[in-house]
Design brief:
single chain; alpha+beta; Immunoglobulin-like; five-stranded antiparallel beta sheet; four-stranded antiparallel beta sheet; 11 strands; 36% helix; 32% strand
């Protein structure tokens, strides 16, 4: 009886844990392929899971941050989906590669031309973005998910540090610190120069080592022959002495 009660309690606890953790896995999220460094470019994936058992996801809309507009936004084609890129005029133009940008992508919409994301599946929507801002640690993308039964789920609540995760959190892209390219370049140049300078010395050293090895081998070979001959002579002499005695 005790074992049965413990097993039952364990099952209930396990079910509760799964029930509480399930929404965390069902959120629309955004993750970079590799790193998303400040000031650089990155390919990010918007991951959209289907939360429903009786409907498919047929439309996904992602709004791009207006407070940190991105000069370049290029979605990758996704089989079975039509893509629409919406641009808006910026309140404040931004500089990118010496050019003044007056408009930027404000929204990307994916609409299924087939079954969409069916129950039990998820879909990734890749987008190339840049240049990423240098004055913030994260970018917030608000998303809207539409199902085949006309239900609409708005992933637009901005998570706040130190507070519980909201029920429908917006996808957040964490930005990493930019690497010092100049320092890496200088280090690379020094390494190449050092490699060029040390190459002849290394070759000479290898050649000298090879010559020394060959000489040593020859000497050892000669010594071996001499020792072998001496051994044979000793054996012959010993045999003669025994025969004489």
């Amino acid at each position: 009886m005790k074992v049965s009660r413990i097993a039952a309690a364990g099952a209930v606890a396990g079910t509760a844990v799964l029930a509480l953790s399930a929404p965390a896995f069902a959120h629309v999220t955004v993750q970079p392929e590799g790193e998303a460094a400040k000031g650089g470019y990155a390919v990010v994936n918007f991951k959209v899971p289907n939360e429903r058992d009786n409907a498919s996801t047929t439309k996904v809309e992602v709004s791009f941050p207006g407070d940190h507009p991105l000069a370049s936004v290029m979605p990758q084609p996704v089989q079975g989906w039509d893509i629409k890129v919406t641009k808006s005029t910026l309140d404040k133009p931004i500089e990118s590669h010496g050019r003044k940008i007056t408009e930027a992508v404000s929204k990307v919409t994916w609409t299924a031309d087939g079954d969409g994301i069916e129950p039990g599946f998820f879909q990734k929507f890749p987008v190339s973005v840049g240049a990423l801002p240098e004055d913030t640690d994260q970018l917030v993308f608000k998303a809207i998910q539409t199902y085949s039964n006309k239900e609409v789920v708005r992933w637009i609540e901005v998570p706040q540090e130190g507070q519980e995760e909201p029920e429908s959190p917006a996808p957040v892209l964490e930005l990493s610190e930019a690497e010092d390219d100049h320092a890496h370049g200088a280090s690379g140049a020094s390494s190449e120069e050092a490699s060029d300078d040390t190459a002849p010395a290394a070759e000479a050293s290898a050649s000298g080592s090879s010559d020394t090895t060959d000489t040593t081998a020859r000497v050892l070979g000669i010594v071996g022959i001499v020792v072998g001959a001496a051994g044979v002579a000793y054996g012959v002499l010993a045999g003669r002495r025994r025969g004489t005695v």
